Every structure is written in structure tokens, then in C-alpha cells.
Q: What sequence folds into this?
């Protein structure tokens, strides 16, 4: 099985200008190692955070890009997440001035707040009394835009810094291909993350080895933004500021999906979602916030 | 058991100027009947919506107010929801121009879109093939402000049109008392509601009989907005536009609650919420949107 | 000339529940005294601010209401502002946590920041070297809603805390009448105010004596929000959060006005405004922000 | 005098990856021709718009980049705008779904709305009766980011699609240099533009020849965003969504400027702006909106 290591393969933008680092074929299973989004200093539980990190635009390194043989504009890249193997150490920190609470949290008052934790036995060991079950997820997953080079701090219709808990093992992610080879890259894995990623960096940031498999299909007719499918749900995505617009985009994407693939009229789809939509902001800290809107597949059979 | 009927007891504002319609004592269990938020015409499955409704400000009638013996400013009113008995018919409709999708849904294009449904056997009977389990909830629950009279269409620190699914049987709602007797009112019951109440009116609107019990306690130190407690969760609330501010308020309320009642420092509380917060917008259609932020009680024992 | 004094005539809500304090006839010129929005302690240049003010909801006192003989729902009340006579002292202050810069200005860091100034010879005497020409304006002007009682801190289609510099001598303000007698009230006069009223309270707050005259007309067909007419401009108003929605409302009101009264089609009106609109946020601190959109009358003759 | 023609020199991103097209020295005066932002089809008054334009990301072509001899990261590039020579024809159009009024203007209802106009004698000849004085301005002006390639549709701390009326002859624009040579590009000239650029494309779009001169200085200490200086004003800029954040950024930039260069404390600066700020949204249609905040230089001498 091919494996893309981190060394020399970290990139800070989602870009058509990066040379491919590995080529895979549709149907092939491969592995990619990911680095911490920040805090590359972290090696042992007692390590202190190195505040001399390089800073923007050198944030959120992703590993890649991976060239997908045969991918071309008009395709959708289907990424099957087969496994997320976590490192045994992680950390979280409050980034003053970068969190969603401008009236509240600033470095001058709180100082640098961070926490290094052990990850073992399926739990994040938060404290003597608090253990949190791990729920591994990939924060950054994207393909190259046509002519732009977009910071990994940001996201968009190309994917990028989505920070969605459902980007996890067993699910599949669809991304709209814009350039030959698609140029997939991944990074920013979290052992667990609350809704909103409220302290900015944010979940339990950790290193990982990802096992992925990709397929190519014709891009679905009504697809603008990335999509996720789970065993039980369709999940549509919108990224924007303010949060209102992210929510609106996610709902609109889901209604158009229900119309194109399941035969609903738009008003029928919206009225049904009025009763059964499951929706939430998954990250509230990036340049554009992420909202997801889901429907259980069992409500799709009219 | 005392029971407040609908007739002559519907009000359209949360206001200190309404005369009390019933007086109850702390600890007493009582019942309140509620009317449909709109569509009072609805009696049978085949009924057509009467578009000649009175319109703003005569929307979202609530039943009350109920005078709570002994309630005074500085108290919190604890409302235990013992039961929500639903009618056997309900409806939902898309209100053009009042829904959260201004770019998309307008009367001139879609016409008046509504759906009348049967409620039976624990299900909303949506169509031949789609049945949705009922999850009854109270949309409007509030106490009188000190000198303002606030439309039932709106919400605020007094409660009002919150539209939160967790305002349901088995849970308790805390409301900050501003005037003698508190002047509680309730209405706008839904048989089920998706996140966002996306078509405006919105969930499955239906009539109900509520069984309630109230207590009085000193208002908790860090409480500004209403709170909900369930068997497993603390739930904090924020209402604002844009949605961003509603989310911020809900998180801040929860952090202050964790600090005051469970001994967390503010940074510790926020970092923990970064991993375990469960948060979402419950309604995205009222003058101020509602966001809730929850934490499982099992994470509160440091 | 009738004159409504401040004593016993200050109110904190725009409300149909206040008894009228004076009755005037259409065409009649009358005077109203106004109090400081906060800082009623202020008498001399050396006075210290009394931080023990009552706080919300007892903010932004207005003088009134004035009953307009013959006013009825469906009318528009035209208020001609004939003169604004300022006191010789005023002040401004930064209200921590209430200003538009939550990431920046908080009491714990800046302390209570205020400035008392002398008003004389047509100038605000800011410092030894800085003199600012006075530009007197009325911050609060409103009529009673139908069934709500709305805090003077807020604004809406009834007017209220608009904080628009063009509410000044020589101009006229149109307000939609909702109850018999209209129940006009006014207050919160500023000697001068920058765009945004950026420190919250905000302009140079001062006492005043207003000379007003009112007329009644049938409410213009396309009028939802208050309007202002100056010698040279039509000015439309929108109040909302976020600021985007306030701007949208103001533009839409102006397009509908140009359509109804000047024969433009909606696209023609919007394309012309694309070239000649003059628009800005006048206050950025109240519960709903105010945006105004203006067009020079000389562009209205197609 | 060097002159950069349009042919072969149009670019669609602000990017460090474009090869320089011309090199100039500080102090040198040079010319740059600019193309229409869209509607390159437009040649004569009777021309019909070609709706087969390429669409995103091929929008808002700028001419460049121009390499500035000696420019390096840490510098500020000062662009003196010496002249803007307009073509004799221009146009404006309403872009459905891209304008700021999502509830209102859509192609299906209004059709494609555009207007081609003659520019002569210092006026835009709008109709038989309406003539609008020209007020030429440069819509797109920017320098290359460090590692990103940002669409000309967007803007940011690098400049880009700012759409500010004060980017006009006689004024100077400061831009923070991020790469060697700065890589300046310009385009999107308007003969006149209303506040908000309300129909999207938006002002009177026209071709032009620009006469520019550049200087290099050390980047001012408190400068994050581009700045403009006019004969009478300092002008600070913020770009963001929602509009609220754009306004906040612009005010903060101006306060920091007043502190660093004119000796104000931050509270003094903000309180003075509370009285004399002149601020407005100049464009309300791009991915990030632009707000400007100005102060008259005569208020800067404490």
C-alpha cells in the first residue's frame, strides 16, 4: 500500500501550483500521514507550547497533494475514509483574538491557555475524573481550485478547513474536481471536537495516519459544495460568514440534492426538513464558518 | 386540578399590562390549553388555510398570564413540564418572505405551500410512506418584562418565542422573574420540529393541553437568559441576530453557569466545551434566532 | 405656544399605554423640552458622572407622549422640525460592553471614559485646539405601536432610537400612525454626532428645547419605515442587525418610494441608485442599527 | 513614459505566481490601461451584452503585475494617482443573485437589466433628463500576497476589489508589500459609483488609462489594511462579512493610526470619532464588503 509521509510533503494552501507528491488510481487504498495543525513542538506530555510558531500564512499544514489518476474537471472525487489512526498524544489551546468570543477572551487577561492530553484506550484523558470517548475526524480535506491558491486556514467549494465531525471512518466525502488529477490534500486531524470548535485550535489536535480510498464519478447535477454520506444520513455543507449564510447554503444544498436525486419538489423538501432536519455549526472559528444540514435516509422514500 | 382554557385567555404580547387569568401556588400542578400559532381555522384534515388571518401584531397567541403566588423580581421561576397532550391534527406552512431563505422562496413563485397532517399512534402521518415520530414541544414560554410589552413573535431574556425542542415533558425551564406574580404564559406547541424550524410556521403546529408545575427559587447568580435542565444535560440559550451572536450568548451563558455552579474557571470551561459542546440553532425564523449550547452532566465532575 | 416640560413627562417606552401629556392640533407649532439620555446628574463642567444610574430598562428618557388631534391608524404623521435649542453643556462617554467594538473596549481595561464639554458660539469646545461645529439632531422620535410597548433604547417601524443626523431643523420626518392620537414622543438630542455614534453614548448628549409643527396626511402607499425629506434629498431608513439587513431595508424602501411617487420601475430605480446613492450607518450601537439611503431630488425627474 | 497595455497583460488573481509585465522605479510616473470588469463585448452604444462571458473565476480582469524596483516585504507601497482618463462609453448591469438584495432581484423576474451610457463633457449621460457628473475611481488595486493567489473578485489586506470612490486622482493609496517587487495590479475603473455599488456591476464600468507614480516607505507601525490619504482626510479601510465587521475593522484601523501617528490615546481617538467620523459602506456586493472610516485632518492637532 502506498503511503505519503509528512516529511517534505506539507503544504499551506489548496492550490493548482503545488507539484503532486504521490499518484493513486481510483479504487486503490492508500495512506497519508498528517501533522498537527499547530504545535509541531509537541512530543511528550510535559512539553510546553512553542509560541514562536511561524504564524499566518504558515498555518494548518496539510499533506499532499495526491494526484488522482484520471480525475478531470466535471468529476466528483469520492473519498472513502477507511481508517483514522491517532497518535497517543494531543493538545488543545485557546487562541486569543482568534476565537469566537471577542468580548471575552483575550491574551492579556487569560494568558496562553492550553492543555496537553494522553490519547489511549479509546479515550481522551482530560483529567483525573473526565475521560472523553475519542471520535476521530479529519479537519482539512480539499482539492485544488482552478486558478486560486487558498490558505488552508480557509475553506470553500473546494473543501479545505471544513472541521466537520462526520468526516470520519466509514463515511464518504464528495469533492468537486476543478483541475486534472484533482490534487487532494488532507490534514488537521482531531481525536474529538465539540460543536463550534469553540477555543479555535480547537478540538484535540493530534497526528495521524489516514487510510483512504478514492473513486471518480460524474459530479452530481445539483452539487456545488462538498457532500458527505453516512450509513444513515445525507449531509450537506455550507461555509460562510455570518453563520446565517452558512446555514442557508447548507439547507439549500440539501433541498437541491433531494430534488435532483430523490424526486422531491423544492417546497416538499423544505417542508419535510422543517420537521426532520438535523443541523448545526461544526466550526465557528475559521475565516468562513461551517454549517451542516442532515436528513435521515429513511425519510427519502416518498 | 386548575385548568386555564383558551377562550378569552389568548394574548399576543408578553406584558406586565395583562390582568392575570389564573393564580397558582408553587408546587401546584395545573393545566393550560394552547391554541395554534396561526391557522385557527384548522378543524379537519380537508380544511383550507384561511389566508385572511389578522396578521402582525396578532400572531402567536399564548394562553395566560398565570399569576404565580409569591413570585417577585429576583426569583427564578422553575417550570416543570409534566405532560404535553397533543390534538390529533396539525399543520405546517411555508411563509413566503418570512422564512430564512430570502433568495429562494417567495409567494409569487411557489404559491401558498402548506400541509395538514394527522397525528396518531405517536406519529405525524406525513405521507403514505413517511411517518415521523412525535416529539412534542412548547414553542412559546415566557414571563412578563418589567415595563415593556414584547410581541409573542419575538423572544428575549424573558423567554417568549424560543422554539426549542428540549422544552418538552420531563424537562424543566428556568425563567428570570421581573414582576410580582411572574405572569407566565405558554403557547405555540409543535408535534415535532426540525432544527431551524425552516419553513417558518414551521414545525407541526397543533393545539394541546399542557400539564405544568412551578417552583420558585432565588435566581442563580450567573443567570441572564432562560435555562433548561434535562436528565442528562445542562442547556444554555441565546437569542439574537445574526446567528453568530445567538451562538456566542449561549456559549457564554453555559461557561458562566459552569463557573458559578460547578467550580470551573472560565478557560477550563471553554476548553472542555471545545471538545464536548453539543450546540445548534433551533429556530432560524423569528425576529431573533435561538441557539442552544449543551453539556452532558457527566463531564461536570472535575 | 404650548410647551411640554420635562418634569413628570419622561417615559422609557414607546407605548400605547402612556396617558397623553399634551394635545396639539395639526398645523400648530409647539415646544418640547428634552432630558439627557443618561447623565441627568450633569449640571456643570466639573461634574463627575454618576455611575449609579438606574440602568436598563430606565434608559433614554423621552418627553411625551403628545396626542395629535385627529391622528388615526392609516395616517402618516409629518413632523416639521422648526428649531433645536441646545443647552450650553453636554457630554459623551464610552459605554464598555455596549459599544460596537467588543474585542477592544472593556471597562476593566479602559475604566470609565467620558468627557464633559461646553457648547457655545455654534461650537462644541472639545479641547484647547479642537472645536467642532454644532449640528443639532434629535436621537429619539417615535409614535406608539398598536399593542407593544418598546424600549426607548430600541427602534423600529414606529421610529424610536433612530439617531440620524438628518433629524434636524429644516427637515421633516414622516412616521406611520398606529393608534388614535399617534402619541408622539421625542428625546436624546445631540449637539453633534459622528457616523455610527461610535462610543455608544455617543454623540454630544445635551438637553434641549424643540420647536415642532405637525401635519397629518394619508400614509404614502409604499411607506413601511419612517422617512425624512430635506431640501435636496429623499432619505429612506432601515433598522436591523446585522448592519447588512439595515442597509438592505433602507435601499428597498427608497426604491419603492421612487416607484410609487416618481414613476421609476424597480430595476431603473436600483440601477440609478447604483450610481448616485448616498448611504451610511448613522448609529452602530443600539439593539438594531440604523442605515440611511438618500438620493438627490434632482435625479428624480426622468 | 512607460505604458502597460491591456493585451496579454490581464490577470484574474492577485498572486505571487504571475510573472511581472513591466518594471518601474520609485518616483517614476507610468501608465496602465484597464479593461472593463465584465462586458468586454462593449464597443458602441447599441451593443448588446454578451451573456456568454466566461464566468467565475475569470472575472474582474486587472492589468499587471507591475514590478516595483526595490520593493520588499515590510515596505508600504504608496501609489499616487495622477490621472484617470476614461473611455467615452460605459455600462452598468444588475447581476441577479449577485446583488445585495436576495429577496428581491432575480433573473427570472426582472430579466437581464443593463444600461449602456455615453461619457462626455464630464458627465455620464444617463437619460434625456438625468446627467450625472463623472467621479472616476479605480475599483481594483492590489499587491501580491505571500503564498496565496486571491481572485480579483475578492479583497483583503493586500487590497484587491476594494471599490472605494476615494481611489481617485489626487489621492494616494498605501498598500502593505508582501513579496519582492510588490507586484501591483489595477483595473475595474468606474466613471461614477454610488455608495454600495448596489446593482453589483455596479458603477458605470468603463475602460481607462491610468497615470500613476509610486513611492516606497517603511510600512507604518499600526498599518494592517490599505490606507488612503486625501488633501483633507485620513481614510481607513476594512473588508469583511457581515458589514458590521467591515465597519469595526475600519474604525479600529483609524484609531490605531491616530494613536501611532498623531499621539491620541485609544479612548481619546474613539471619543473624538464618536463626534466627527465620516463612514460608509462603499461596496456591498463583493465576497467581502468594504467600509471606510474618515477623519478630517483639521481634527488631528490636539
A:
Amino acid at each position: 500500500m502506498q503511503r505519503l509521509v509528512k516529511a517534505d510533503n506539507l503544504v499551506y494552501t489548496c492550490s493548482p501550483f503545488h507539484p503532486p507528491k504521490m499518484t493513486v488510481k481510483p479504487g486503490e487504498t492508500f495512506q497519508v500521514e498528517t501533522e498537527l495543525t499547530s504545535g509541531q513542538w509537541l512530543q511528550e506530555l510535559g512539553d510546553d507550547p512553542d509560541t514562536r510558531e511561524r504564524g499566518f500564512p504558515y498555518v494548518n499544514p496539510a499533506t499532499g497533494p495526491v494526484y488522482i489518476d484520471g480525475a478531470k474537471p466535471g468529476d466528483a472525487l469520492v473519498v472513502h475514509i477507511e481508517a483514522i489512526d491517532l497518535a497517543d498524544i494531543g493538545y488543545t489551546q485557546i487562541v486569543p483574538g482568534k476565537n469566537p468570543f471577542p468580548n471575552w477572551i483575550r491574551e492579556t487577561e487569560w494568558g496562553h491557555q492550553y492543555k496537553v492530553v494522553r490519547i489511549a484506550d479509546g479515550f481522551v484523558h482530560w483529567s483525573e475524573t473526565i475521560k472523553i470517548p475519542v471520535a476521530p475526524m479529519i479537519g482539512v480535506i480539499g482539492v485544488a481550485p482552478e486558478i486560486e491558491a487558498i490558505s488552508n486556514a480557509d475553506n470553500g467549494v473546494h473543501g479545505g478547513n471544513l472541521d466537520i465531525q462526520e468526516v470520519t471512518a466509514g463515511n464518504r466525502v464528495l469533492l468537486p474536481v476543478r483541475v486534472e488529477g484533482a490534487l487532494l490534500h488532507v490534514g488537521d486531524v482531531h481525536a474529538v471536537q465539540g460543536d463550534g470548535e469553540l477555543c479555535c485550535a480547537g478540538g484535540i489536535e493530534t497526528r495521524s495516519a489516514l487510510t483512504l480510498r478514492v473513486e471518480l464519478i460524474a459530479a452530481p447535477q445539483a452539487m456545488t459544495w462538498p457532500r458527505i454520506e453516512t450509513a444513515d444520513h445525507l449531509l450537506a455543507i455550507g461555509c460562510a460568514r455570518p453563520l446565517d449564510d452558512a446555514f442557508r447554503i447548507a439547507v439549500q444544498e440539501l433541498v437541491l440534492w433531494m430534488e435532483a436525486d430523490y424526486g422531491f419538489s423544492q417546497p416538499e423538501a423544505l417542508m419535510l426538513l422543517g420537521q426532520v432536519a438535523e443541523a448545526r455549526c461544526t466550526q465557528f472559528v475559521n475565516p468562513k464558518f461551517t454549517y451542516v444540514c442532515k436528513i435521515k435516509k429513511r425519510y427519502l422514500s416518498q
The CA atoms of residues 85 and 146 of chain D lie 32 Å apart. Chain D has two domains: 3-218, 227-299. Chain D has a mean pLDDT of 93.
